[in-house]
Amino acid sequence: MKWWQSAVVYHIYPRSFQDSNGDGIGDIPGIISRLDYLEQLGITAIWLGPVYQSPNDDNGYDISDYRAIHPDFGTMADMEKLIDEANKRNIKLIMDLVVNHTSDEHEWFKDAKQNKDNPYRDYYIWRDPVNGGPPNDLRSTFSGSAWAFDEQTGQYYLHLFSKKQPDLNWENEKVRHEVYDMMNFWLDKGIGGFRMDVIDLIGKVPDEGITANGPKLHEYLKEMHEQTFKGRDVMTVGETWGATPETAKLYSHPDRNELSMVFQFEHITLDEQPNQSKWDLKTLEIKDLKEVLSKWQEELKGDGWNSLFWNNHDTPRIVSRWGNDLKYRVESAKSFAILLHLMKGTPYIYQGEEIGMTNRHITSIDEVDDIESRNMYAERLAEGYSKEDILHSINVKGRDNARTPVQWDDSEQAGFTSGTPWLPVQPNKNDINVKEALENKESIFYTYKALVRMRKDNPIVVWGEYKQLLPDHPTLFAYKRLYKGEEWVVVANMSEKELNGISLDSAKEVENIMISNYNRDDIDLNNLFLKPYETVAVKLKG
Ligand code: NOJ
User: Fold this and answer.
1) For a Cys staple, 332 with which of 66, 252, 423, 533, CB 3.0–4.6 Å?
2) Model-level pTM?
3) What digits encode the pLDDT tens for the residues 181-192?
């Protein structure tokens, strides 16, 4: 048993968490000032978004110096204090590791660009033009070709994200060892592990059009393990967009010595048109969600470990996305929390989720900060899409949705900053904020707190076998957990329509209601009546 198997991780997007110096950008001293709040929530670890030196083309995911802290966020001394203060509260700090690419302002790339013979040239991926154009038709996640032409040396370099994020050449042993040295530099400072940005891309074979899951991926991860984490009690989580339960086992099987767990997105892509992009919207079918989440629960078994999450800094807020962020905001937010936190895996809470923060609404592209949304807007406009359609996609899926400042109280800038926030505070901060949530014992916050506690106190939540119940029902999500003779059942009405008279054919009676979102004090599993979004978890009599 590893500590991260019973952990709950809290994900901080540093720019938007808490500003301490009035420049409108969240910072490390701001995070330190909120550690007591996180301790109160009960979480075990923080996944800290990138705080390294960066020109911020992609808000820190374009790193120009891996061993320096961006002055917007503070100093190295602040960072060491954060690690220390977190550790004092038994909270581990998980740093974001962005090593598929660097910034084009990293010293390595600046050197590499000088000429073809530069010793750093081969740190990146360069190819000659083909027929006067890019070497092939690989596309960047942020729109357009993944190849950018460098005038000075007459070659193209690969960038699977923005032009300012050139991909590192993992085939080059020197690159790999530079990365491992840098990882050890941070591990030696006492961090609790790494969240690995798009780690499934490092084994790419661009000439064959292979980006994710390349042939050498697992070889590199094993080498990384050997050179860095081996012998250290740390947690590693790989961002692996295209993982299946089968490939997840390759990353996270305990005997393979690669990563602790995967962070995969299969459930998160169920509201997009198949084989199109995240911007091509489709209504979520609850049945699909049940099927995918259950598949991951049932197929991973003891052969791998998965993360549990509804949202992060790249995806919309769950309560707005698949719940109802007006009439049933509290009920649906609690429902999603209960449903997910009683599954097997390591849950992640994205900042503000624990108080039911909502998506942001924009009416013009001028309001958008996110590079992915802005590039897509320009591309689709040129392709003839209507402005309305594009803005609608951004409102539903854009990354700024999750990046608005955390709403701490109802003051002018919600307690986030004394200055002007880099992204505006949401107008609903008067009703939705941490201060209110802490004062109100019925708030979403206390449901999260109870769920975090429940995982610590009940081995069944961590280890129990999972079985889906009534898989064909279109809106009732029901499952069972079983562990050493103990049984729990979770039922969630994932719609605004009441559900009546459904039977789970349970031979056992209910012993206890463990948690619910409507303060239920009894329930008949063989004649269920559930209000909109009503969700209940029970323990059965032995
Ligand atoms: C995934 C990160 O979560 C996202 O924010 C970033 O833009 C890309 N990787 C590129 O680093």
Assistant:
1) 533
2) 0.98
3) 999 999 999 999
